[in-house]
Amino acid sequence: MAARSGVRMRGVFTAAAVAAAAVIVGAVLPATAQSAHAAPTVPAAPAAPAWAPESSAAIHPGVVLSSTGGGGQCTANFVFTAGSRTFLGQAAHCTATGEATDTNGCTSTTLPLGTEVDIAGGRKATLAYSSWATMQARGETDKGACSANDFALVEIAPADVAAVNPTMPFFGGPTGVSRSGLPKGAQTYTYGNSPLRGGVSALSPKAGVSNGDTDGGWGHEVYTMNPGVPGDSGSGYLDADGRAVAILSTLNLAPLPVSNGVADLARALAYADSYGGLGTISLVPGTRAFSPSPPGVPATAVAVPAGPPLGG
What we know:
nine-stranded mixed β-sheet, Thrombin, subunit H, globular, mainly beta, six-stranded antiparallel β-barrel, 9% helix
């Protein structure tokens, strides 16, 4: 099946998605007999990776990801770890196998766990978690979650971790995870890398304003002057303090034309922690400080738009 560039579209027509869930087999350490006076042995914590310099890193937020066997091209959002494992985040719908109108994460068909994911530049990753596949396995009935919990993780091969940097291009950060969501009027900053942009990097950084929550807080509606388009799916959103707050899920044609639906990251992570089988998943902060107006970026590219009507 030919790869599709995904942002799912709501309104007149839609583009689909999802992936497979994570089955992680934990290592069991054998018990060791100890004398009554011996101190218990405490396993050493895994060493923190030495991240590549931002200027030369081949794997980072904003890199294009393409699944094999279906799905489409998407943009990585943030870097995460769980124990000694390292992951890139993407949208779960980026590995869908159904029709373009399949947008419900609790019913859409997905690629299996272990699906190979191509990272732009020639490296490979492996699908390790999908909120959509996990919700299906659990029989999730929360309509808000089924509609807006759109988050997946692809695992970076250990040999490639040295090529990873966790910094969002242009804006820097993230500085942590936002637990506050995106209330109406909140500013947000994102970076998309859709192939449809033809390599014009000036179109990638975008500032936006939130129109408030959707799907019971599982999602938010964001308006930017330059909206996220197919291929930007999964890209990360920062709040005004540089905290990771959301990931791009849909391009909305109604009720607010050319707005974007974004998945709430804190909720998506909590769901993955509880049901994903990976253990506790941690966001990796960027190695460069966040700035809403970084040097060298045209002011027009990052000017926060007037936005949609915020009332009603």
